[in-house]
Amino acid sequence: MGLLSETNKRNIEKVDIYFVFSGGFVNKKPGKSTKERIEFLKMLLKKFPETPFVFLDYNRGKKIANNFFQNKKSNTVLSNYRYNENLGGTENNIRELISILKNHPEFKKIGIITSEYHEKRVRIILTYYLNKEKLSNIKVYFFHNKQQEIYSCSFLRYLRLILHEIGGIIYFKLYYFIN
Predict the structure, then answer these.
(1) Residue 63 pLDDT > 70
(2) Which fold has domain 3-149?
């Protein structure tokens, strides 16, 4: 599995599908991280307009996000994955992604759009599931915007974001080590 970060690359690699990890919603509107990811996907779709994409989130979030892509409905890949309320959002996102990959063997190179601070946790959980489902031949490229919320937010918000990611990694590693 090739996990590459495309943040600073000038020649962005063409992929078979984009997976956009939601950054959350506030009052039924995309939060800052979600807006950044949606804008980044729009930029990528200008360069590769035929590339399909999936917005990974609970159904409410998907509906809100898809409003930003009314003219791109033909690009949207649908999934029948049902989110498990006992799991965190990132793990649900990855399970949905894996479900789609299992149903679409033509997707060999995937692009993941998330925040730079979230990438480490996504890599850890994704590597686990790709290996578990024997999909380790999939090439994975990470994309994120250079101007991210984490570089301009308050210290308390920064601390919360970082601790949330570290906590998520520790929880995942402990949970799957014990089970």
Answers:
(1) no
(2) Rossmann fold (3.40.50)
